[in-house]
Structure formats: structure tokens, C-alpha cells
Amino acid sequence: MSIVGVSGFAGSELARLVAEHASLSLVGVVADRWKGSKLGEHVRVPASVAKLSVAPMSEAVNVARQGEVALLATPAEVSARLAPELLAHGVRVVDLSGAFRLEDPAAYPRWYGFDHPAPELLAEAHYGLPEVASASTRAGGARDARLVANPGCYATAAILALAPLVEAGAIDPGSMYVDGKSGVSGAGRKVEERLLFMEVDENLSAYRVGNHQHTPEIEQALSRAGRVRASVTFVPHLLPVRRGLLVTAFARLSGKVPHAEVEALFRRAYAPADLVEVRAPEDVTLAQVAYTPYARLGVRADAERGSVVVTSALDNLLKGAASQALQNLCAMIGAPPLSSH
Ligand SMILES: NC(=O)C1=CN([C@@H]2O[C@H](COP(=O)(O)OP(=O)(O)OC[C@H]3O[C@@H](n4cnc5c(N)ncnc54)[C@H](OP(=O)(O)O)[C@@H]3O)[C@@H](O)[C@H]2O)C=CC1
Ligand SMILES: CC(=O)N[C@@H](CCC(=O)OP(=O)(O)O)C(=O)O
């Protein structure tokens, strides 16, 4: 395996997870910021890979060709250009960015700010949310996929929260609401005024209201899962913590599923999922999921108001990025799944 973008927050988590997985071997790491230095100088990894030399971005294709799969932890526009080159060299790709999550090429200028350079790959990419197979159009799942689009962090939490409800026809899919709150590591290592300590500490603010790139991703996944046209209003907020995100989703019950049976939908849907826990909504907290690969969900239906509320929490860098990428990678190559410790 190789990791491109290893100097980023998600890339560093990936390096640790790949290095610690007994069935995976890390053969190359790439990032300009750390080029020429050893991986172990920056990330706490086992001695076997600590001596790996970090290659510059200009060497990304050559380095990635040494491994069977490349993990891209790069900005969407970078991944969109790099993935086709890697695929052309026979290297399979798990991409952590949004570059291959949306099936409609016309959505890219609107939500990501660039024209997609490889629109033909959008239909092929597998949307890799392992616990919600219906969110992808690919019948075979990640196994045998050449290209896996790893879901966004808020999108993972929101889709886990709403998929069992739309799949069962339990809610009105035309009006779902999602309030999301994320720790600052969600924004990556970049320098930005809104991410300064003085802006974030002891503060809470909404951002990109009506304009967040995970809106079409959530709608696409729920439309597929429910075979309906899903419409989601999503508002993200920046929380003054390092790790973790929590979304609260609200929807109107359709009456098709009695309110007393709504929680059972979740328990059934996620019974086979080792990494998704269903608890009371009040027990869904950042502290329970931060630094773990778990997502935790809580649901409560309100018969009097005809509504349902779902809380959903995960670590944005793990289930929201790197550990989910590992789940996908293991499924692609038939390696044992990520240990759920
Ligand atoms: N942070 C999170 O919680 C999540 C992130 N993601 C996605 O994962 C990917 C990586 O995110 P994250 O680790 O947070 O990001 P960071 O900003 O922390 O890291 C970005 C990485 O990409 C590299 N890079 C290569 N080319 C460029 C370029 N042109 N501009 C900027 N960086 C470049 C950087 O290398 P260098 O600085 O050495 O040049 C760095 O290694 C992104 O697509 C992000 O959207 C997805 C889910 C959650
Ligand atoms: C706090 C914060 O800024 N979070 C990021 C989430 C990053 C993510 O999951 O991003 P991609 O879809 O770009 O891969 C954001 O809201 O854009």
C-alpha cells in the first residue's frame, strides 16, 4: 500500500492504521511538506515502517506503482487528477476526498469549485459506506472495485442516522434536517482565519450554510437507499474540540412504521455491523467515539408530534475518514477487517 498526502491529519492516521495492521504492508508515503525525511520523525509508527522515506508529490505515481492500492488523503482537486493516472498504471485507489463521491459531473463546479477532469470514473467508483450497502450502486461492493470513494465525515454520520428510516419508508424523504457539529481537525492542517484558536476557542458557529459539499452526497446516498428523491437541509458547525463530530437529524414520520417500532429498525439494520452501536440518544457523545473507529447512534420517535430525532457521533478522522478507508481497503483486497478494539 502507499499513502499520498501522509502529512495531513487523515494521512497520518492512515499511516498508523496501515502500519499496525498485520496483513497490510506500507511500501511508500508521499507529501511535499515532509519530503526527504523519515515517516517515524512525524508519526508514531512501528519500527518496520518508521524508516520509510517520504517522497515528494512529483514522485506520487512512481511511489504508488510499488503497491497494489494507493490511499489518497489529498484535496479533492488533487485526487481527481491523480486517481485516473494511478488506475491507468493498474494501481487500485481508495480516495478519502470528495473527488469521486458524486455521480453527476455537473455537481462538481457547484459543490467543489472545479470541472471534473475524469467524469467517466464517477459511474464506476464505489461509494464505500460498508454498513449501508444500498448507498452505492455497485452490486459487488468494494470487493474487486478499482476505485473506492470514501465518504465524507458528516455524510457518514448523517447517512448512518437516516438510511434505516428511508429504507423502511418510515419518514418523509422530502424534508429531512441535519444539524452537524465537528471538531477542528475536520478542516485539515491548512491555515485559515476561521480556524485560529482565538476564533474557535469558547465559541460555536455555523459555516457554509446552504452551501456545504456534503449536502448532495447525503442526498445521493439516501435517494439510492430509499429509491426515492431525498431532500436534506444540512447545517454544519465548528466546535472548539480537536476530534469528533455529532449530527442530530430530524424528520417527519410517514406513519408507515409504528413509532414504537422505529428503534427496532436501527437495531436490525446495524446488528451485523461491528462498528456501529445503537444506544439511547443521550448516550451518543463525542467522548464515547473520539479516537475510536466506532459510530454511535441513538433514535427516538415522538408519536405526539409525528417526528423522529436521531443522534449520530463518530471520530471525523477515523470512522469519518481513515478507519473507514481501512474498512474499504480490507474489503477490496480480502484482508481481515480492521480490529474493533
Ligand atoms: N479532516 C477530516 O476530518 C476529513 C478529511 N477528509 C478528506 O481527506 C483529505 C485529506 O484531509 P486532511 O488530512 O484533513 O487534509 P490536510 O490539509 O490535513 O492534508 C492534506 C494533504 O494533502 C497534501 N496535498 C497535496 N497536494 C496538495 C495541494 N495542492 N494543496 C493542499 N494539500 C495538498 C498535503 O501535503 P503537504 O501539506 O505536505 O503539501 C497533505 O498531506 C481531504 O480531501 C479531505 O477533504 C475526509 C473526511 C474527514
Ligand atoms: C470542520 C470542517 O471544516 N470540516 C470539513 C469536513 C471535511 C470533509 O469530510 O471533507 P471532504 O468532503 O472535503 O472530504 C468541512 O466541513 O468541509
Give a written overview of the molecule:
By secondary structure, the chain is α/β, with parallel strands linked by helices. It folds into two domains: 2-150 and 321-333, NAD(P)-binding Rossmann-like Domain (Rossmann fold); 154-314, 2-Layer Sandwich (Dihydrodipicolinate Reductase, domain 2). 28% of the residues lie in helices and 21% in strands. The chain contains eleven helices and 14 strands. Strands 3-2-1-4-5-7-6 form a seven-stranded parallel beta sheet, sandwiched between helices. Strand 12 (276-279), helix 10 and strand 13 (295-302) form a beta-alpha-beta unit. Helix 1 crosses helix 11 (322-333) and helix 6 packs parallel to helix 8 (214-226). N-acetyl-L-glutamyl 5-phosphate binds at residues 76, 97-98, 152-153, 182, 186-187, 213-214, 236, 238. Belongs to the NAGSA dehydrogenase family. Type 1 subfamily. It is an enzyme of class 1 (oxidoreductase). Its EC number is 1.2.1.38. It is found in: Cytoplasm.
CATH topology type of the largest domain? Rossmann fold
Largest sheet, in brief, is: 7 strands, parallel
Uncertain segments of ≥5 residues (pLDDT<50)? Answer: none
* Tally of separate domains: 2
CATH superfamily (homologous) name of the largest domain: NAD(P)-binding Rossmann-like Domain
Count of separate DSSP helical elements:
11
- Say how many strands there are: 14
Look at the structure and give the CATH class of the largest domain: Alpha Beta
What is the approximate shape?
globular
Distance between the termini: 23 Å
Structural class: alpha/beta
Strand order of the largest sheet: 3-2-1-4-5-7-6
Report the order of strands and helices: EHEHEHEHEHEEHEHEHEEHEHEEH
Radius of gyration: 19 Å
Q: For the residues shown, what is the average pLDDT?
A: 97
Beta-strand content bin = 15-25%
The appropriate CATH architecture of the largest domain is 3-Layer(aba) Sandwich
State the helical fraction: 25-40%
Write out the distinct hetero groups bound to the structure.
Answer: NADPH dihydro-nicotinamide-adenine-dinucleotide phosphate, N-acetyl-L-glutamyl 5-phosphate
